[in-house]
Design goal:
By secondary structure, the chain is an all-alpha fold. It contains two helices and no strands.
C-alpha cells in the first residue's frame, strides 16, 4: 500500500469514528431530558397513589375502631329497652 492510499484510509477511518462519536452526543441530551421528564411524571403519579392509599388506610382503620367500639359498648337487656318505651 503506498503512502497516498494509507493517508486516504486513515482519513476515512478518522472521519467515520468522528461521525459516530460526534453525532450521538446531541441525541443523548434529548433522550436524557425525555427520560428525566418521564421519571418525574412517574414519581408524581406514584406519590399521588401513595397519598390515596394512605387515606384509604386511615378510613379503614377508623372503620375498624368504630366497629370495635360498637362491639365493646355494653348492650342494654331487652327488658330495659321495653321499660324505656313504656314511659
Amino acid at each position: 500500500m503506498n503512502r497516498i492510499e494509507y493517508a486516504w484510509f486513515l482519513l476515512i477511518l478518522f472521519l467515520m469514528i468522528g461521525g459516530y462519536t460526534g453525532g450521538c452526543s446531541n441525541d443523548e441530551s434529548g433522550v436524557a431530558s425525555k427520560v428525566k421528564e418521564e421519571v418525574k411524571s412517574l414519581e408524581k403519579k406514584a406519590s399521588g397513589a401513595v397519598k390515596k392509599l394512605e387515606e384509604d388506610y386511615r378510613v379503614l382503620e377508623g372503620k375498624k375502631d368504630y366497629e370495635k367500639a360498637l362491639e365493646e359498648e355494653p348492650k342494654a337487656p331487652p327488658e330495659a329497652m321495653e321499660g324505656g318505651a313504656e314511659k
